[in-house]
Structures
1.
Amino acid sequence: MTTKTNRKESVQEPLLEVENFSLLFRHYGKGLRESNLEVIRKFDLTIHEGEIVAVVGASGSGKSLLANAILGILPDHAVMKGTLNYKGEALSHKKLLALRGKEISLIPQSVNALDPLMKTGKQVQTVIKEKNKREIQNAIFRKVGLAEETGDRYPFELSGGMTRRVIAATAMVSGAQLIIADEPTPGLDPAALHETINFMKQLAKDGKGIMFITHDIETAIQVADKVAVFYAGQTVEIAHANDFSGKGEKLRHPYTKALWNALPQNEFTPIDGTQPFAYEATEGCIFQPRCPISTDICRQKQPAFHSVEGGEVRCFHA
Ligand SMILES: Nc1ncnc2c1ncn2[C@@H]1O[C@H](COP(=O)(O)OP(=O)(O)OP(=O)(O)O)[C@@H](O)[C@H]1O
Ligand code: NI
């Protein structure tokens, strides 16, 4: 199953290509019986230069694991399967070590990512290659809504929101070609959110590719060109940001429609049930137990990812 040939995108080699990607945790039960917990299942995503792709999913859907897998920072009992390519070449561990922090940069979800013993300004400056480090650091601090003096403070002297801004600022000035931002916006006030979104767009204009992970659909459609909707470890749909409009008529997957219509400014209709763990799912479609339009085939088989009206979807009824 490959969807690559269906995509109407530039012929340029994508920055990041994730295809049929699964992530398992080796797990030892009673009597050292080994079993595998599959937390990401057959995930597909492509990011080109100049493109911002949002990955939207509920808590526990596997977003941070995906980000960490791309950066090669997973626990020892994690097993990856499938394709992970950077500029057309497999992202081996060795290659990752060479690219990490230089060509590929992570804005981690955890606010513990800063060195507690180094002033924040210095930390940001360590990734700046140019000579006028202090000036560049001050400029990026202003952009993300931090006072210049913040650079002379230690991480423990900052609030959670300020810490997030420092972390985001670090990735923004790193010169990386691919930025994986894992929930970079919670805790930002509206003005700083606006600035951050504009700055991400500016980075994309400069040719960088950005994976923007969030559980917030509204932020996703403001910042991204494409939105990948993640459900229990699987991409159920890749839509264009402007497909999110009206009552969601242009959206392809029932879960995406449900997410859209659950927003307060839309119908405010909650979705019944809860997201399963990816490894709990059986043969059928992962969304089937909560799906309003499911039929027999949805219980029997897993739908393949296929193109529908310029987007992609994993549903028999789209
Ligand atoms: N080291 C681990 N070993 C086993 N299971 C794990 C491990 N880390 C995460 N998981 C499981 O994998 C699933 C996905 O976790 P992940 O942190 O990627 O979710 P997320 O989408 O980033 O959630 P959030 O929005 O809350 O940050 C969860 O069910 C979690 O329990
Ligand atoms: Ni997360």
2.
Amino acid sequence: MLTVEGISAGYGERDVIRDLSFSVKENEVYVLLGANGSGKTTTFRVVTGVLPPSKGRVLVNEVDLWLEPGSAKRKIGYLPEGERIYPDLSVYRNLLFFAKVYDINGGRVDELIKEFGLERYRNVNAGNLSRGFRKRLALARALLHDPEVLVLDEPFSNLDVPGVLSLRDKILEMIRMGKVVLFSTHIFTELQHFEGVKCRVGIINDGELVVEDKLDNLLSRVSNIEIGITTDKPELAINLLKNLGYEVRRDEGSGIAVRVSNYNAEVPGIIKTLVAEGVNVYQVKPKETPLESIFVKVSGEGRGLSK
Ligand SMILES: Nc1ncnc2c1ncn2[C@@H]1O[C@H](COP(=O)(O)OP(=O)(O)OP(=O)(O)O)[C@@H](O)[C@H]1O
């Protein structure tokens, strides 16, 4: 379990994060959602033992990270922003280097190369890998010492679609394996893929955690958003939903976009209606919603929301 208690931290005199508290348990994912510069990376630096807090403490399974860094840090795997791998070393040598740091044998390196589908690139310099494979290598490096807590800074940024899919599967697998997972993102729509798992979301704004809630609750509180639906009969779907009083329009490809006032309450009914009328629904997801608008909607309900 990871517990963050009232941490403040910054660079020089100025604290850029202030009084942040949250905790993440085994089999749970905690997502730190925030705009650029809101303090996500700074938070992660404190949580992983890179940047000392000016106030507060971080506990990894009850052990204070900053008082007993040796044993607590070993329990953490960190995927930093920008990956931080050696571009002039091969995939194998990158992992071997960090294996030596952790006093881990080469067998584990081979295991991870296989697990992350990096066999073809074993002897390729990390600098020549595509972004997706660089990310995989960095994630393999973060998992080298089999940490209990995984901290991933913007894991989905700069990835193509297959890269996002395989990384998402990997994260879900790690949650199922009982790891504590903490990741940051500024992409709201990424969250919907974590609906089936225990997921809590903290929204950070200008260095302060302004909202914290279960993902399900957060989604149900997000009102008046557009949902994209991919279907085989878009025109029929539009008519059916218009008859029910929805604001609906044709979207790109075989999709429609419908405006709902309560995501969790209305979307299941919409799908049922369409399917009952012979309209196949292939995909339903919120349209990209700017973080700011979600943020305004959610924080507009007041601070100190239910935890
Ligand atoms: N090394 C540093 N020295 C001084 N100020 C910094 C440093 N790193 C970050 N900051 C400042 O701290 C604030 C928070 O930055 P941080 O990188 O933690 O935010 P972030 O939410 O991770 O942003 P992004 O999504 O852009 O990575 C910003 O105002 C940033 O300019």
